[in-house]
Amino acid sequence: MKNPIDLAAQAAAFADKYNMLPQGSTVLCALSGGADSMALLSVLEALAKPRSLTLHAAHFNHQLRGEESRRDEAFVRRFVAQWCGPAQVDGHELPGVPLYVGRGDVAAQAGELGRGLEETAREMRYAFLRETAAELGGALIATAHTADDNGETILLHLLRGSGLRGLTGIRPVGEGLIRPMLTTTRAQVEEYLRLYGLPHVEDSSNQDTVYARNRLRQEVMPVLREWAQYYLRCQDEVTFRAMCRLAHPGPGETAVVSGESGASGMGAFLAVMDNPDYRKAMGFDENSVVLLFSTEGDTDPGHYKEVVSD
Question: Between vectors from CA 27 to CA 92 and to CA 33, what angle results, nearest 5°?
């Protein structure tokens, strides 16, 4: 029987790499009610006491899905009230998690501005999160982006046309945002929720392939996972470095390399070597782009330090 995933320990290790959660920080957890955000809230609660964190949660109702949007808001309100209230632990009073709820008519705003729904929803949601964080005295905003999200983002950037910066994917930290679960896979999240009996809601719009990310997730990523079985794989860093040299591209060409160094089931993840020191150490031309494509590899970023920049 395999050991259960310890998301809190995994997130803590990744957070420490980027100094995401300094002792005594105030953290605002973006809470949609979906699987990823529910896992993030649980992880942050586990880290709150040892790191003296002051934890808050925030939910934004985009009012795009009628009764389903109202259901999500009600679910989040109920969960936080019932499961994140004040508690006594080892004789110490732990404060509850205050919840802040915002609403916005995304469809109307998108129509007025002549923009897409996804773009407008994101802008309005982050504006609410930043405003709330400011009211809390500059709280760090924690979002539940995962390794799967990162892989999808890089592929979208690649398909739409992007420079090296875009191909590095979702930034772990920046502009008041922290993403402690960026090395956690969706499969790990689902296992964690199942193991601890944590509920969540499903957003039906995630099944709508009119949105590029959904179509990529449902139609492209499964094919890439299947095709990845035919790529070379490696079991450790030494082999990986040797394989990179074998895959050495010509000037300006692209090398796609598959790596497998663990059994954590990553799904699909792409990262680009964007650090000139790493590039030089690996012997790649400065104009070459090197993509790491790991389908089942260990998501610990330390295991990829030779090929993935910080």
Answer: 95
Cβ-count burial 54-71 (b if 16+ within 10 Å, e if not): bbbbbbbbbbbeeeebee
Token output for 10: 């995994």
- The model's pTM is 0.72
Place of tokens 């905003």: 141
- The whole-angstrom separation of Cα 73 and Cα 76 is 5
Q: Are 259 and 298 in contact (CB under 8 A)?
A: no
Would you say the C-alpha torsion 233, 2, 265, 30 has a positive or negative sign? negative
**Alpha helices (runs of H) in 105-179, residue ranges in sequence order:** 106-113, 117-135, 147-160, 164-167
**258-294 pLDDT tens trace:** 333 332 222 223 333 444 544 454 444 454 444 444 3
Cα-based torsion angle of the residue sequence 309, 148, 20, 168 in order, rounded to the nearest 10 degrees: 30
**Partners of 289 in the β-ladder:** 254
Give the burial string for 227-260 (b: 16+ CB within 10 Å, else e): ebeeeebbeebeebbebbeeeeeeeeeebebbbb
**Three-state DSSP state, 272:** strand
Give the tens place of pLDDT for each residue, 54-80: 999 999 999 999 999 999 999 999 999
